[in-house]
Amino acid sequence: MAQPNFSPAADRNKQPILDVLLKALPAQGSALEIASGTGQHVAWFAAALPQWTWQPTDAMPAALDSITAWVAEQGLLNVRPALVLDVMVPEWLPVGSAKFDLIYCANMLHISPWATCAALMQGSARYLAAGGVLVTYGPYLEDEVPTSEGNLSFDQSLRAQDPAWGIRRREDVEEEAARAGLRLLSRHAMPAHNLLLVWGSSS
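Structure (tokenized):
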């Protein structure tokens, strides 16, 4: 079996994120993770929330081996096999797939083109069960909050790598969510000037 990849950032933020999830989520449910990356988050969350069933995914097929390795290393039985999922594809999952109580997406919006934000919101609106929530995590710019020097430098470095990348304004993300019928339910300040945002149906 392939060795799991390791992200220092994912290792640092997995527990602060889990602390919020433990307060925000019911005792059991089903979760879809978008952009699972190394697989560290889904393995950590699934171990702490054993009554939840987790579906990890990533747009990059090469990521699946690392996700699978993390799950196997932890001996987790509540994680489904990782799938390739590109948010830009209208049908994320096969027709007739069950909906999810949680869709979780960390650190994707700033390292992908802006169009992925609308796609994430529209897709989440389609695949969330009644009462379900979308959770996004990462750095954001906010009109009413001064941007940290670290995030300013990070934003510049992202745009230098790819002009389509960059830290997104929370207000712009809210507009895309509203177009999909979602609204911001709660905002949680996180370490290293990140935010965890919880989105739900606006109806």
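The chain has a mean pLDDT of 97. The first strand starts at residue 29 and ends at 34.
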